[in-house]
Structures are given as C-alpha cells and as structure tokens.
C-alpha cells in the first residue's frame, strides 16, 4: 500500500478509538442533574407538610390539640414550607461543578496524552517503513533471484574448471548461459559438452540453437546436422523438433514442418499457451502445404515485382519499436509483418525484414500474398501484426515482441505500427 494511505488509515483509526473512549466517560461527568434533584426534593417536602397538616387537623378534631396549640403548630409548619419553597433553584449542587470541570479536563487532556505516549513509547517511523517494504518486496525478490542465479553460475564455472571432463557440468553451464542470453559463452560451453556427451540429444539440439543464433540465425549446415543427430537419438527432443520445424517452414517444406510441429504439440500440455501457438502454426503449415505456397521470405524490390496487383489493393505504412524495448534488440533479430483476415485468421500477406531496418517503411499488396488463392485484394480490411523474434521463428513464441493494428482498410496509407508488447 502507498505509505501515505498507510499512515492516514492508522491515524484515522487512532482518532476513532479516542472518540469512542471519551463517549463513555464524558456524558456521565457533564450531565446536569442539579435542578431536577431539587424539584423532586421540594415535592417530597410539600407532601410531608400536607400529611403533617392532616394529622394536626385530626388531633384537633379528636380533642388532642386545643385551638391555640393547633394555630401555633400550623403557623410553624407554614413557615418551614415557605422557607423550603423559596430556596433558589440555581444553587449549585455540592461536587457537581467539580465533576463538570473534570469532564472538560479529560476531554482535552486524554487525546493529547494518548498521542504523546505513542510518540514517546511507540515507533511512528515503522508505519512508513512497513508500507515501503510492501512496495519494494517484489523488486527485492527479483534482485535476490538474480543474485542466486549468478551465484549458481559461478559455482558451475568453478566445477568445470576443477574438472574439465565433467560433461554434466558443461551442459548445465551452457543452459545457464543460454537462459541469460549470453550466446557466445553458451556456444563454447555447448561445444565442450557435445564433445564429452556426443549421444545426449538435448546437448546436440542446444548446441544447434547456439550455433544458429550466433551465426545470423542460419540453420542450414552444421546446426541442422546436429538437429538430425538429436532426433535420431531422441525423436521427442523438444528443441530439435522446434528447430527442425522452423527450418522446414523457412525452406517452404510445409508438409514436413507440419509433421514436426504436430509431433511437438503432442508432447506439450494441451492447455498451455505455447501448445495453442504450436497448434495454430501446425494448422497453418498444413494449410500452406495443401495450397502449395512457397516459403516465407523477404519481399522482392518494388521494381522487380511481376505479379499482377489489383488497383488500390495495397497497404502502406511504417513499423517501429517502442524506445523502452530498443536496448534489448540486436540488428539480426527477425522482423515479421503479417496482414491477417481477422485477429486470429491466417496471414493473407507477409514480409520479413530485420530489426536493423527499423523504422521500416512497408508496402503490402497481392505480390506479398501467402496464398495465391487468398490475396489482400480479396479483403476489405485486415489486422496488421508486427513481430520481432530473436530465434527467427515466424511462429509466435513467448518473449517475442509484438505490435498490432486492427481493422485496417485495404488501400490505407500512413499506417503506423508500434511494437510495444512482449508475448507472455
């Protein structure tokens, strides 16, 4: 919680408690009962005097009192009654003024004393410290986790130095470097691990990935040789299936890409977001395989386009990345731009570029169609999706950066796409 609200709520609660305490104490001390008490006493005295008068009259009638004695006693009784009736009502009741003064004193002193004691014996600064601890807890946890991970890496490095023939230590070190995206170090560690564990499928596929990423995302050559070896050892190696599917997709072998992705999807938890992405990619590869569409590549220069283009069936605009995300990019990161028939529909046009070309001016038209039977000119509006991928995989993966603009009319110009969101 915000420190301001933490402190404010505390003091509001403290004031309420003091008010409740005073509400129990003050009414009894401040209540005025003097007038009422005097009136009740006077009524009682008058009733007594009346009874005494009746008794005197009865004694006179019975001969117990003479007329002279009766008149004398009556005058004395009337004098006492007159003295009592004429007593002033506003005469202060003994001790009442003192009680009211005590009430006023407590009403003023009790709150001051309570808060003074808290500031003397309590710890007001702990309120702000507690609130600030809550707001910084996540940051501290993240820093602690990163420190622990780096400490683990140092221990593994010491282990490989102490025993250079420990293949498991080299594998762990390589995977740790890969998780930190320190690919040159990961490549060196994977090379050592592959030499010591040549029949470990996960080592070979990790080695292939590190080679591809440090080699301008090229999978042809040695990376694919390692992938094929990994699949021969373990046909269900996830990384090998993924790289094989990417390479087949790039080369336009969509049937083979669909087979790899289908096998990969069967190994994933069905409800996971990644499984849904792989299933969508597999279905797209299968569709492309049936339509005979060539592989995805960079669009040809405008002067070299020979495919017929419907008049007005083009979308022109620019793609850029948010300034906050630029620091994590490399010029070799792949940039894909898709025009989809809807938020989740198949691509009807696509181009590929690199992050080094940002900001990129683009033109999408029928010459960039993914399927000759499903071109941009056949649609009135599309959704544009721009994606940056470090792996070069056209299939969306967690960690890719994306930006999208929906309901773009075919024929629009000046469309701006900002890549500003990482995929979960």
Summarize the structure in short.
This protein has helices at about 5-30, 35-60, 65-85, 95-120, 125-160, 165-180, 185-195, 200-215, 220-235, 240-250, 255-265, 275-290, 325; strands at about 315-320, 335-340, 345-355, 360-365, 380-390, 400-410, 415-420, 420. With about 425 residues, it is of the alpha+beta class.
Detailed description of the structure:
With 424 residues, the chain is α+β, with helices and mostly antiparallel strands. The chain folds into 3 domains: 3-121, no CATH class; 148-291, Alpha Horseshoe (Serine Threonine Protein Phosphatase 5, Tetratricopeptide repeat), CATH 1.25.40.10; 302-422, Sandwich (Immunoglobulin-like). 57% of the residues lie in helices and 12% in strands. It contains 13 helices and 8 strands. It has helices at residues 3-30, 34-61, 67-85, 96-121, 125-162, 167-179, 183-196, 201-214, 222-233, 238-250, 254-265, 273-291, 323-326, and strands at 315-321, 334-340, 347-354, 360-364, 381-389, 401-409, 415-419, 421-422. The strands form 2 sheets. Strands 3-2-5-6-8 form a 5-stranded antiparallel beta sheet, with no helix packed on it. A hairpin with a 6-residue loop joins strand 2 (334-340) and strand 3 (347-354). The chain is elongated, with a radius of gyration of 46 Å. The relative contact order is 0.06. Mean pLDDT is 74; it is low at 33-37, 128-136 and 294-309.
């Amino acid at each position: 919680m915000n420190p301001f609200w933490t402190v404010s709520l505390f003091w509001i609660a403290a004031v309420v408690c003091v008010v409740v305490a005073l509400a129990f104490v003050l009414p009894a001390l401040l209540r005025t009962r003097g007038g009422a008490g005097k009136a009740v006493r006077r009524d009682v005295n008058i009733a007594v005097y009346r009874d005494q008068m009746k008794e005197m009259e009865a004694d006179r009638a019975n001969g117990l009192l003479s007329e002279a004695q009766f008149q004398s006693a009556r005058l004395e009784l009337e004098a006492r009654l007159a003295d009592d009736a004429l007593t002033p009502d506003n005469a202060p009741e003994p001790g009442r003024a003192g009680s009211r003064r005590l009430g006023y004193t407590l009403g003023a002193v009790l709150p001051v004393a309570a808060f003074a004691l808290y500031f003397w014996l309590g710890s007001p600064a702990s309120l702000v410290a507690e609130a600030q601890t809550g707001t910084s807890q996540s940051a501290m946890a993240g820093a602690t986790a990163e420190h622990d991970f780096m400490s683990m890496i140092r221990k593994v490095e010491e282990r490989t130095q102490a025993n250079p023939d420990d293949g498991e230590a080299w594998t762990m070190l390589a995977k740790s470097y890969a998780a930190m995206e320190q690919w040159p170090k990961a490549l060196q560690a994977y090379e050592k691990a592959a030499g010591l564990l040549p029949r470990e499928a996960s080592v070979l596929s990790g080695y292939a990935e590190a080679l591809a990423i440090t080699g301008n995302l090229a999978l042809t050559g040695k990376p694919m040789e390692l992938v094929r070896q990994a699949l021969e050892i373990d046909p269900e190696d996830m990384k090998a299936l993924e790289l094989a599917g990417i390479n087949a997709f790039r080369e336009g072998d969509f049937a083979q890409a669909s087979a790899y992705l289908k096998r990969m999807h069967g190994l994933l938890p069905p409800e996971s977001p990644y499984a849904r992405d792989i299933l969508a990619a597999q279905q797209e590869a299968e569709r492309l395989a049936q339509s005979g569409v060539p592989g995805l590549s960079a669009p040809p220069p405008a002067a070299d386009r020979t495919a017929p283009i419907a008049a007005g069936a083009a979308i022109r605009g620019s793609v850029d990345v948010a300034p906050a995300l630029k620091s994590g990019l490399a010029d070799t990161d792949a940039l894909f731009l898709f025009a989809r028939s809807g938020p989740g529909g198949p691509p009807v046009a696509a181009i590929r570029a690199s992050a080094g070309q940002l900001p990129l001016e683009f033109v999408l038209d029928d010459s960039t169609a993914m399927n000759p039977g499903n071109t941009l000119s056949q649609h009135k509006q599309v959704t544009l999706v721009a994606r940056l991928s470090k792996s070069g995989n056209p299939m969306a993966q967690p960690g890719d950066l994306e930006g999208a603009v929906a309901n773009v009319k075919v024929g629009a110009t000046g469309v701006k796409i900002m890549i500003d969101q990482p995929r979960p």
